[in-house]
Amino acid sequence: MRFRSTRRQAPPVGLSDALAHGLAPDGGLYVPTRWPQLDVRLLRGLALQEAACLVLAPFFAGDRLERELGAIAERAFSFPIPLSPLEDGAVLELFHGPTAAFKDVGARFLAGCLERTGVSRRTVLVATSGDTGSAVAAALEGSQRVDVGILFPIAGVSRAQRHLLSCWRDNVRCFAVRGTFDDCQRLLKTALAGGWGGEGELTTANSINIARLLPQTVYYAVAASRYSEEHGAAPDFLVPTGNLGNATACLWAKRMGLPIGRVVLVTNENRTIADYLATGSWRPRAPTRTLANAMDVGDPSNMQRVLDLYPALPDLLRDVESVVVSDAEIRQTIAAGPARRGRVWDPHTATAVRALERQGGGHRIVVATAHAAKFPDVVEPLIDGAVKVAPALQALLARPARAVEIEPGLDALDHAWRSEAEGR
Ligand SMILES: *Cc1c(COP(=O)(O)O)cnc(C)c1O
Known about the structure:
The chain is α/β, with parallel strands linked by helices. The protein has helices at 15-21, 48-60, 69-76, 103-115, 131-140, 159-166, 181-193, 210-231, 245-255, 272-279, 303-309, 313-319, 327-341, 347-359, 376-383, 391-397, 410-422; strands spanning 3-5, 30-32, 83-86, 89-93, 122-127, 146-153, 172-177, 201-204, 236-240, 263-267, 320-324, 364-368, 404-406.
């Protein structure tokens, strides 16, 4: 299998090269050159790790990572991803990993790939304002071959998030950047452009990396297989959406022939996607802050991949719809969760639950992207009680946290990186 750029101005590459570079040299995003078709019956009765090998084998074919797929899948899919019933649908719980958000799946899969590509030393730099940084750190802490640097905006994260971005040790360095998330991203781009890489070859791990998206197709494939077997119908998926990575993976699973109905792109008040579907004109804008902050994206980068999959708007509208959910609705949905359904939703999942309640009926699966315990500041006042913390998260919250404050410049990063190394 080869991967080509969405801009089609760069030569196609194999999987290892696509994941090591993240972005194609022409500035486009890598996509598979063809879509293998999967017979859903083959998935029945398979464990998640076995299903991952089946779904992903065609994408690894011919690459130097081909023989490693089993080990990579075993490491990435090491926690349960249950599909649990709701009275009016079902919920796919993606939050049972070490950092309690769906990003654990992609981060652990990418980590497994990076450790096995044969490069002796790598540095992974992540600019993050939330769940990606902690998922990548958890996936690579203790690695002998990959060093990790986390850049997060000092004022742009909640207390709980800051802790989860700063509680890492050994080969993971945490930097609180005196600036915004955009400053962090700019610093990352400067490092990439300038060939900076600590002691190793520099790679990024943001959500445009193909090795994060591919494993996300697996849980959609498995859930669609299980649901269609039980209910005799292809379910719709309601996906809390920011950068459109998770929803793109769902569309890819559908393109591979799996029984998936419509993909509902549920956003917070950042309505770039909704406006595009309504008008056909793509108008990215600056992000607005909302309670579902991991979805505060005004220019979703994976839109390039969606448009590549659906060059014609009418085709896209056949498979996709969008729902916009306000902060007031997020609050109501969280507050009503315990009495109405016996469940505590996090602010991101709450957007999809609200979309389900607004639309009603049919065969619908809510995609639960994070555990409520990651967002106690928002959730606890609304449910008037404490959220039960998942055991894995408890261990992380009990760790000491330490981040080095830096100015948003490459010199500052380089200096702090070196003095961190000496301090070990
Ligand atoms: C990242 C994230 C999202 C948005 O996912 P995208 O792939 O960027 O669309 C939704 N919910 C949570 C909890 C997240 O961390």
